[in-house]
Design goal:
alpha/beta; 9 helices; Rossmann fold; 13 strands; six-stranded antiparallel beta sheet; Hypothetical Protein Yjia, Chain: A,domain 2
């Protein structure tokens, strides 16, 4: 089965892109979601986009601690579902080159064939983060090892800023196909361009995460939570996302690049909440979410 890696930093729009790809798929498709936190939220979102098989890897990065588990998940998918194609959504802090290398290990060659890498970039936060050394190394690895680079959220920035992102991407990887996108809407080629793996240097961002499964919570209280997260009342939060339900309705809330968005989901989705950043006020979040058990690391 062919595996396409979807990589990109936290909040770039990887899950949104996958949700756009699913309805257009003309082959038997499965998705593997790698979450940085302990509570899986992207699985619920991906599952809502169509009738397909979704597997989950949580609490770590597929590029390092979850390599062995990835092999098990792909083997299980092949035996149980026999997909023609698998979309592997990498954690937002994963190193793309390490994922590619993991997929090319001998014990996986008979299970999975790497089809290509689609790297997603948030145009609205790229310039600020790329100026920081740690993030720059992560971005360079992501771009260098991509066959396609999707510059997402172009609706939020000027043409001059988009052109600057395209210039940097072109300098790092001249052979990559570069596409612009808003809300993950993009026309991808049927066959992804070929590419070569460049291992580069190891990148480990020092980020903390807090995960929880909240009880009943309506949209108004969830919106209050995310506005307070955006203002920094619970620490320096780079990314937060959550599914909340109340009265038979479910909502998805997202904080990325300093912006909060919300979406009502069909039916009752499994609730969950994840915040990623530094100096996270875990106790305050537990009180607000009214949870006893959490997963902080």
């Amino acid at each position: 089965m062919k595996v396409t890696v979807i990589s990109g930093f936290l909040g770039a729009g990887k899950t949104t892109l996958i949700r756009r790809i699913i309805p257009k798929a003309d082959s038997r498709l499965a998705v593997v979601v790698n979450e940085f936190g302990d509570v899986g939220i992207d699985r619920e979102l991906v599952s809502s986009a169509g009738n397909l098989e979704v597997a989950e890897l949580t609490s770590g990065c597929v590029c390092c601690t979850l390599r062995a588990e990835l092999a098990e998940v792909l083997e299980e998918l092949r035996k149980r579902f026999s997909p023609e194609r698998v979309l592997l959504e990498a954690s937002g802090v994963a190193t793309t080159s390490s994922i590619v290398e993991a997929l090319q290990e001998p014990h996986l060659k008979d299970v999975a064939e790497l089809d290509g890498v689609i790297s997603v970039i948030d145009a609205s936060s790229f310039s600020e983060l790329y100026a920081m050394a740690g993030f720059r190394r992560l971005y360079r690895d992501t771009i260098t090892n991509a066959s396609v680079v999707v510059i997402n959220k172009v609706d939020l920035v000027s043409e001059r800023e988009i052109a600057n992102v395209e210039r940097i991407v072109g300098e790092i990887n001249p052979s990559a196909l570069v596409l612009r996108s808003s809300f993950g809407e993009v026309v991808l080629p049927e066959k992804l361009p070929s590419f070569e793996v460049d291992a580069g240097e190891e990148v480990h961002l020092l980020l903390d995460s807090f995960s929880a499964k909240p009880g009943e919570m309506g949209a108004e209280k969830a919106e209050e939570l995310f506005e307070r997260l955006r203002r920094g009342e619970f620490g320096r939060i780079i990314r937060a996302k959550g599914i909340f339900r109340s009265g038979g309705r479910s909502w998805y809330f997202d904080l990325s690049s300093g912006r909060v968005s919300r979406e009502e989901l069909a039916g009752e989705a499994e609730p969950g909440f994840v915040a990623i950043g530094s100096e996270i006020d875990v106790e305050a979040l537990k009180i607000f979410l009214e949870v006893q058990n959490d997963h902080a690391c």
